[in-house]
Amino acid sequence: MSERSLRQYESGEVEPRSASIEKLSRALDSPVEFFYGADLEMIGRNAASFRAASKLPKYRQRSALAAGALAMHFASYLAEHFDLPEVGIPDLSGTPPKLAAEAVRGSWGLGAGVAPNLIHLLESRGILCFALAQDCRELDAFSFWRLGRPFVMLNTLKSGERGRWDAAHELGHLVLHRQVEVNGKEHEAEADAFAQSFLLPPGAIAASGLLHPSLTQVLEHKAAWQVSAIAFTRCLHDHGFLSSWHYRNLVIELSKRGYRSGEPGGIQRETSQLLDRALRALRVDGIGVKEVASELDLSPSDLYEMVFGLATLIPVPSNPN
Question: Could you tell me the CA-to-CA distances from 250 to 39, 160, 236, 238, 243 in Å, in that order?
Answer without folding.
Answer: 51, 21, 11, 14, 11
